[in-house]
Amino acid sequence: MNPKLRDYSIFDRFNFERKPVGVKFLITKPEGVQRLSKKINFCEMLKEAQNSSPFYVAEEDFQCVEPFLLGMKDPEPLFISGLVGEKEGLYQEARANRDIYQHLPKLLKGSVKYAAFSPIDQLPFDPDVLVITANVSQAQTILRALGYSTGEIWSCKGTPVAACSWIYIYPVVSGKLNFTVTGLSIGMQALKVLPEGLFLISIPWRLFPAIIESLHHMEWGNPMKDETRDENIERIQASFEEMRREVSGDN
User: At 205, is the secondary structure helix, strand, or coil?
Assistant: First the structure.
């Protein structure tokens, strides 16, 4: 595992209540990182990493069946058949639940044997994906940074089950930022992973340079939020008039 090269200190400015977590997928056992000493669900590893030292997991450390999403094992037939979703009342019929497994992001079988997790302030590696737990104001700044220099639009993808696939894996295989809101995932809500109403923003490694640079240069927050409605309209109209004079050359 290569050592960390990138500087992530710009994220310290947010003063997040819960630490961002870097996740890296590996074929070789990470050196200098302890193995998790208990079995938990894939989605719970985010919460675990927010409150611990860096750790790694192997297939045997998952309480859930999700290691197949990482290509670590074959999928459980009862899950991919959709029968579980039907029996649990999550989907009308097995066929509806079964359909999502045609679309869930997955890593190639055999490509990953270990997953390493670390809070951002202890990162010993450059992560494949950085998962940020944010409030609305913090999320607004991060999502604006995505397109600040490029015009990139943001979007989100997900399903009510298997949220871990969309949080950890989709950004890596697609190269796109993804986000969800806590409380939308049935499994994470049942396991009490995080309080409801928080943004989970997953940034893939390909976007680190642009987003970090934008956070260094852009104005954070909404510069208009403290204006009254009338003040906002008046200022915008005055700004438009000034720009029109500039474009027309009428000074």
Answer: helix
Q: In what order do the strands lie in the sheet with 34-35?
A: 34-35, 55-57, 114-119, 21-26, 129-134, 199-204, 178-181
- DSSP SS3 for 200: strand
Find all residues with CB under 8 Å of 103, minimum gap 6, and list them.
Answer: 159
CB 85 within 8 A of CB 94: yes
Contact status, residue 179 vs residue 155, Cβ threshold 8 Å: no
Phi, psi of 21, deg, nearest 5: -125, 130
Give per-residue pLDDT as tens, 47-85. 999 999 999 999 999 998 888 999 999 988 988 999 999
The residues spanned by each domain of the chain are 9-220
Q: What value does the mean pLDDT of the chain take?
A: 94
Say whether pTM exceeds 0.85: yes
Q: Specify burial of residue 161 (Cβ count, 10 A radius: 0-12, 13-18, 19+).
A: buried
> CA angle 130-182-141, nearest 5°?
55
Tokens 């940020």 belong to 132
